[in-house]
Amino acid sequence: MENRVKKAGVAKLEVAGKVVDLPVYSGTVGPNVIDVSKLYAQTGHFTLDPGFTSTGSCESQITFIDGEQGVLLHRGYPIEQLCDKSNFMELCYLLLNGKLPQKTEYDAFLKEVKHHTLLHTQQDRFFDGFRRDSHPMAMLTGAVGGMAAFYPGAVGNEDPAERKLGSIRLIAKMPTIAARCMKYTMGQKFVDPLNKFSYSENFLNMCFSVSAEEYEINPVLARAMDRFFMLHADHEQNESTSTVRLAASSGAHPFAAVAAGVACLWGPSHGGANEAALRQMRAIGSVDNIPEFVRQVKDPSSDIRLMGFGHRVYKNYDPRATVMQKTCHEVLEALDMKDHPQLKVAMELERIALQDEYFVNKKLYPNVDFYSGIILEAMGFPTTMFTVLFALARTVGWVSQLNEMLDDPTQKIGRPRQIYTGEAQRDYVPISAR
Ligand code: ACO
To answer: How far is CA 66 from the centre of its chain?
Structure first.
């Protein structure tokens, strides 16, 4: 990666009676950054930023978010335009390569992805080791990490062609692994990929077809699946992506680093929120119970949060939520489920929360997870699969960010520091004398 940061000025910091100059850099758009990488050498001090609320960890040219304006750009293209005019496979190409493909490049990319969708037969046997009631995210974490055993050559590989192949393999095999996680928990036979289908159709077929009868792919659902994948494809330096970068910064196998990202995504504050949001809507049950629920969320002594609301970066509407809400209506219409009880609860919750001082003052808006659970449930996915679908979609983001990091000449092993408040040095006391 060619580094493109520009020097934009100098910040002065006075610490312990010493004034130091810290370089200020600007990117293409977005806030400038103060480079503190030499701060310890210059002053003997570290910075402290738990949760990294004011810390940038890298230079990146993949995704830009303006949280105040509700803007999300992939390689400069707005997510709304991509969702309207493009598709997930083209977005994968864009994220990986930095430009939209020509027709021949697009066709070659599709062909390559399709060529790698099958799993090694030994990998299929992995699943037998899991209990049938295992959470699909537990299986996914294990299965993705286990892929490193099948492709050991990808580790530390400087060969761009080998690295590219590793990226394609992950993107191609993730739907097959994800569908197997679902089939395994249902006690159904695994369905192999079929190359006549598009990426999203193929995934639906692997999840929902059974040998006893023909499965017809509903084009509205296939489009909704594709849009779900697009909306979750990348989101700059979020928790799981930062986890992937950090894990890979030690030179770990890229597939193992992605498995670390899957594990991170599982949490309800991140990718697990779609599952949590739907469970919460089910627990609320009907619109009549919403005022009492909102009262509980606002009660300072309760730790209940409205799941699917709020975001670390978006302090205005999450642009992905707008597309997701529209898709939700399309799916429920296609399935003749417009009276879906959770949709009614969601719409009323959103209406109330957007007018309520508590949510308005804290800049809490629906995020991408608020409506996605309703869509996925209507499509027939079990709740425990929701985060797996997110992981499938985010794989291209993880891989693109990981490749970018490996190509960045300024990349170092990620190693934060701390402020230590434990005991100072003391002498060991034998057990008889304590
Ligand atoms: N419901 C109620 N109150 C909330 C919510 C919420 N969903 N989110 C934040 N708040 C309140 C907090 O209680 C806090 O109030 P306080 O200042 O009085 O203490 C204030 O808003 C700020 O909250 P923080 O947790 O400090 O904000 P942060 O940026 O760290 O959190 C997060 C972002 C984790 C997403 C949070 O909004 C949340 O927990 N939301 C629900 C879970 C969720 O939907 N996660 C999905 C995120 S999108 C994704 O990962 C794809």
So the answer is: 17
